[in-house]
Amino acid sequence: MPEHDPVIRLIIIERLVKSTVLFVGAVSLIAADRLGYLARWADLVQDQLELSADRGVITRVLAWLVNELGHLPPHVTVVALAVILYAALEATEGVGLAMRRRWAEYLTVLATGVLIPFELTEVVAKPTLFRVGALLVNVAIVVYLAWRKRLFVDV
Question: What is the distance between the alpha carbons of residues 78 and 84, in angstroms, rounded to a whole number?
Answer without folding.
Answer: 10
